[in-house]
Each structure stands twice: as C-alpha cells, then as structure tokens.
Write a structure and sequence with these properties.
The protein is an alpha+beta fold. Helices cover 31% and strands 37% of the residues. The protein has one domain. The chain is globular and about 50 Å long.
C-alpha cells in the first residue's frame, strides 16, 4: 500500500513539473499586466504591472502567497519588509496588501519598480541559468514564517516571460495612445 502511495506522489509530482505555463495578460483602466500562476499553489501569482502614467517604461513586480494560517497578527505584516529567498538568494519583499481569501488570506508582496526593458531581460537571463524562479518566505529577525504561512515556497515558470511582458506593454501603449487622443 505504501508503495502505491509513493508511486502516486512521484507521478503527480512529475505531472506538475510539466504543467502548462498559465499567463493572463490584460489591461485595466490605466495599467496593463501579465500574471503567471504558481506551480505549487496556482492561486499564488507572479505579477508584472505596467502603468500608463510611466509611459509604459517601468514595471512593478509583485507576487502573492495564499495562506490558511489564522494568526491574529496577520494584519501586522501590512507594509512590513519580509525576508525571502529568491532561488536561494536572501532578499526582502514588502507586504502591499492582505485580503481575506477562502478560509485564509492572500498576501501580496512587492519586489519593486524597475525600468521595464532592463528588468525583463535581467529576469529572463536569471531564469534561464537555473530554469527556476522560486520564492521561499523564510524566518528573519523577530519574524517566524510558519506563524503566518502554511506553505512558504512556490515557483513559477517563466519560459514565456518576454513574450508575455511584450504583449502587456503593447496593451499599456494602447492606453497611452487612447489617452492622448482625448
């Protein structure tokens, strides 16, 4: 029986690693975005927002994590910098938003705002080297990750990063063009 369960886990894990990269590319009012679903939890998204007010030249990189931990202090995280590892590299990400989601919370983090062309090509090279883009929420000074997050790691496929961001940038430029015509 144990062998059947183990074999089932291996098969399911292998199927997950070949999951299709699911990007959403849309425009909304004065911005466009490209979003890709996580492989561990699809509800965890990696997002790239492009604002028309920046003439579509900057990109805001965010990601979200879904958690079902019920800490009474979850709201305390808002606007705090939380320690993360990106492909094993120590960084921080700022908590931008916390929303109730199902029986838990969806927490949105910001990686920052960057010049679009340079950042997207940097990310593409970064991803190409290891073929992974993995974020882990880790413990830090006065911060215990498992107090707030039941699943603290996710990864995203970025094979279609440049194409997806290019499409989102084109949508942003349509917003700018339509605004200028008014």
């Amino acid at each position: 029986m144990l062998n059947v369960i183990y074999l089932s886990l291996i098969i399911n894990h292998n199927n997950l690693s070949f999951a299709e990269e699911k990007w959403t590319i849309k425009k909304y009012q004065k911005l466009s975005y490209a979003r890709v679903e996580g492989e561990v939890q699809p509800e965890d998204t990696l997002n790239f927002f492009i604002l028309a007010e920046d003439n579509c030249n900057k990109i805001w990189n965010t990601f979200s994590f879904l958690t079902f931990e019920k800490s009474v202090e979850t709201e305390y995280l808002l606007h705090k910098k939380i320690p993360i590892k990106l492909n094993g590299i120590d960084l921080t990400a700022k908590v931008e938003d916390i929303k109730p989601f199902s029986r838990g919370y969806q927490i949105m983090f910001s990686m920052g705002v960057f010049p679009i062309k340079e950042y997207v090509y940097f990310l593409n090279e970064f991803y190409s080297e290891l073929k992974k883009f993995e974020i882990e929420i880790v413990d830090g000074v006065n911060f215990k990750a498992d107090k707030y997050f039941d699943i603290r790691i996710n990864n995203w496929k970025l094979e279609k990063l440049i194409v997806s961001i290019s499409k989102a940038n084109k949508l942003c430029k349509e917003i700018v063009y339509n605004t200028e015509k008014i």
